[in-house]
Amino acid sequence: EEIESLNFIEHIIEGDISNNKNDGRVHTRFPPEPNGYLHIGHSKSICLNFGTAQKYGGKCNLRFDDTNPATEDTEYVNSIEQDIRWLGFDWEDREFYASDYFDQLYDFAVRLIKKGKAYVDDQTAEEISATRGTPTEAGKESPYRNRSVEENLDLFERMKVGEFEEGSKILRAKIDMSSPNMHLRDPAIYRIKKAAHHRTGDKWCIYPMYDFAHGLSDSIEGVTHSLCTLEFEVHRPLYDWFLEELDVHHPQQIEFARLNPSYMVTSKRKLLELVNGNYVNGWDDPRMSTISGFRRRGYTPESIRNFCDKIGVAKRNGIVDIALLEHSVREDLNKRAPRKMGVLNPLKVVITNFPEGEVEMMKAINNPEDENAGTRDLPFSREIYIERGDFMEDPPRKFFRLGPGREVRLKYAYIIKCEDFDKDESTGEITTLYCTYDPNTKSGSDTSGKKVKATLSWVSAQHAVDAEIRLYDRLFTVEDPTGDKEKDFKEFLNPDSLAIIQGKAEPSVTSLKALDHIQFERQGYFNLDPDSTEAKLIFNRTVTLKDTWAK
Ligand code: ATP
Ligand code: MG
Ligand code: MG
Asked: Where along the chain is L-glutamine bound (predicted)?
């Protein structure tokens, strides 16, 4: 019998189900603001919200929290939908927008005014923040705090129809200017913003504040468990206050730790800065922490979901080692990626006793981890390329690959022996190796009894196709690029995060489609970049075979 341990959110939910709270329903939501592309941190929230609903036979809404007209855009809505679907989740017909509730939210604000729980303040933003006080010192009540309900209703209505300038008036909740929780010191509910909204156009010139819109949207949708990140813990009393004052359905807000992977930034605002400043090539640059960047880099949805699962649900913020995510994608691609021969840094080898013009087909296994993946034919001929690093002119004792007079096996082919080499004396570069092959050593029918210590990958020179290969390193040089508040995170950008090299690959790679995954044997996992053309194939290295960063 399997013993499954519950995370703390599941504990709460199972308690609620057994108490028949909300009639035993589980209803969550993923609530992105459409002001940028989703990042790996969001995948934690997506897996948690959609995954928890699935687990308990409930529902999960996709709700765009679009209350900030200036920064939001339909492009972002579309990318967010694409990324959630790609991760493997489906909201069916439950796609909602906070902006769909603007009329209802306005009515809620009017109800608060009528209860004497909200007022229009004429103070400037500076005056309001100067009188807010400090956590240990009470704030000062606004001189407009005791306006009559009638006057507030009239002013709020006139805010709505556009009579006042931006910043000249604001609707505030009337709570407690001496509360130790600063969020309860008469927080703003509605502000004037004369900006077109990506969905409601020019219909509104006042917009609800996040705290007001968010909880009430949850309530309108019948959400039962509103899962959000830890920074909202201090907002929870306000979340609860609005729902109680308005006496509406009351979802429970539960906070969990943000996912902050090492060597990355996960803030849409900072990612936008990287895109706008051309520090990267767009939102889906394979070095970005965005879901679209990971997709383009060759990560699979399964690898991201498994990673989110493995790191669990924490109550305290911390940095998660990015090596865990790399491990997860290695594990997944090992099972699914077809093996190909590819040489990243080619060195020409002439097999002097192999007949000129002859081509021999070698049987190569497509995926040793997948019996059904079958085999393919690899052409072998007199001239091949091997990896430059697989030869040393003067090898140390522990180097078992090629050197003058040494023997190695070419995978799926023959054992070869290095007889001679050419060297460019001016640069010291080895230009060609001359080897002989032993016809009795063919893989699968070796009768020679020879033992060699290394097996090399190779491609036939006349059959190989050129391949541009993009090697990625961490985008930032420090674990926590935003940890030092004195410094701009861009100071920690890694100038060597992208290296482009020209390699050679076996001919079968020409039938790959954009984003297809492969393993170049001995090199790592790669995918075909969507910018590839028939004339120019481009491969992204997703991850190396082993964790080269392990200390
Ligand atoms: P950003 O600073 O990147 O804009 P955000 O929290 O403002 O992040 P939202 O679009 O509001 O972004 O996020 C949607 C949901 O995803 C929210 O519930 C938020 O708490 C959650 N979320 C955002 N970032 C992370 C993260 N790094 N780890 C886990 N959940 C996250
Ligand atoms: Mg947010
Ligand atoms: Mg944000």
From this structure: 65, 210
Which atom of ligand 1 lies nearest, measured to the CA of 44? 29
CATH classification of the domain holding 213: 3.40.50.620
Confidence class for position 549, pLDDT limits 50, 70, 90: very low
Residue 484 DSSP SS3: coil
Q: What is the structure's pLDDT at 550? A: 40
Nearest CA to ligand 1 atom 10: 32
Give the end of a domain, one of 225, 256, 287: 256
* CATH number where 415 lies: 2.40.240.10
Q: Is 266 in the pocket of ligand 1 (CB under 6 A)?
A: yes
Catalytic positions:
33, 258, 268
Cα separations (Å) of 244 from 110, 149, 472, 507? 15, 20, 51, 67
Ligand at minimal distance from the CA of 64 is 1
Last residue of a domain, one of 422, 456, 490: 456
Sequence-distant (6+) residues with CB within 8 A of 22 are 16, 224
Indicate which residue's Cα is closest to atom 3 of ligand 1.
Answer: 267
pLDDT tens string 437-490? 999 999 999 999 999 999 999 999 999 999 999 999 999 999 999 999 999 999
> What pTM value is reported for the model?
0.95
Query: Does residue 221 lie within any of the structural domains?
Result: yes
Question: What 3-state class would DSSP assign to 403?
Answer: coil
> For ligand 1, is residue 229 a contact (CB within 6 Å)?
yes
* Contact indicator for 490, 483 with CB cutoff of 8 Å: no
* One domain, residues 27 and 163: yes
This model of the complex carries an ipTM of 0.96
The residue whose two tokens read 């509730």 is 101
Per-residue pLDDT, 253: 98
Mutation choice for ligand 1 from 42, 44, 66, 313, CB with most ligand atoms inside 8 A? 42
Domain that holds residue 44: 8-256
CA of 139 to the centre of ligand 3 (A): 27
445 is in an annotated binding site: no
The reply to whether 262 sits in an annotated binding site is no
Query: CA 77 from chain center: how many Å?
Result: 16
pLDDT at 1: 44
In 34-135, the DSSP E strands lie at: 59-64, 95-97, 118-121
Domain count, the chain: 2
Look at residue 358 in the predicted model and tell me its pLDDT: 98
